[in-house]
UniProtKB/TrEMBL annotation:
This is Nitrogen regulatory protein P-II 1. GO terms for biological process: regulation of nitrogen utilization. Keywords: Nucleotide-binding, Phosphoprotein. SMART domains: P-II. It comes from the Bacteria. The lineage of its organism: Bacteria, Pseudomonadati, Pseudomonadota, Gammaproteobacteria, Alteromonadales. GO terms for cellular component: cytosol. The keyword Phosphoprotein applies. One of its GO terms (molecular function) is enzyme regulator activity. Belongs to the P(II) protein family.
Length: 112
């Protein structure tokens, strides 16, 4: 079992959700986050004054999936979230040791 965590641009969320739905992904967690990568934020102009934005708004997705489905999910995420511009985000893949569905007590593969 794998946990896929992706940081993407907020306006790409609907496109990513639709692409993952077409792949058969039935659930994900979405969180509004802020951060920066290599670009180290950016400068914006507001009412004639420049100011530095250190943390850029992003969306964090978390998706638990079967190990054999992991690469398809990663490829779909990368394709759907890509704009070709700096700040497109990152995808992280982790091993999952255990999953428990609270309502039924199902474990691991059955709980996904």
């Amino acid at each position: 079992m794998k946990m896929i965590s992706a940081i993407i641009k907020p306006f790409k969320l609907d496109e990513v959700r639709e692409a993952l739905g077409d792949l058969g992904i039935e659930g994900m967690t979405v969180v509004d986050v802020k951060g920066f990568g290599r670009q180290r934020g950016h400068t914006e102009l507001y009412r004639g004054a420049e100011y530095q934005v250190d943390f850029i708004p992003k969306i964090k997705l978390e998706i638990a999936t079967h190990s054999e489905n992991c690469q398809r999910v990663v490829d779909t995420l990368a394709k759907a979230a890509n704009t070709g511009k700096i700040g497109d985000g990152k995808i992280f893949v982790y091993d999952l040791e255990q999953i428990v569905r609270i309502r039924t007590g199902e474990l691991d593969e059955e709980a996904i």
